[in-house]
Write a structure and sequence with these properties.
Order of helices and strands: HHHH
Structural class: mainly alpha
Number of strands: 0
Length: 141
Amino acid sequence: MDTIINLLKDKNYHLGKFLELNEGELLNFSEGNFDNLEVFYQSRETILDLVRCIDRLIDAAASTHGDAPVVSNQNKKEMVTAMNIKNDMVQRILAQDLQILSVIEKAKSNIIRELRTVQSGKKAIGAYKSGDAPGKLDEEA
């Protein structure tokens, strides 16, 4: 049981790192700084891979203990505490992800709006450029 408890704590540690990573980049994104977007997503994926690995280790450790392992009250409390911490962090991560997606969506909408403005400006300038040159008309007359 100690192995499972340690793995749960390790999982929570990595989820905490995930939260910290989100917090830092959310500040950058809110300021319009998307320079580290690719690194941000790669770092998140690396942490999620670690969490998946820990989950597999927890499953393996649980299966070695048989169907109904005897768990002391202290171990039970530690496991429940670790799982409650995990649930809290997952809820916070989901809230952060919604904020991140919202900020990215707003930036994307602003870029699309700017592109449309530039495109309409180019059309207006193009309308002034089209037509026959005045010098050609004078030569033909």
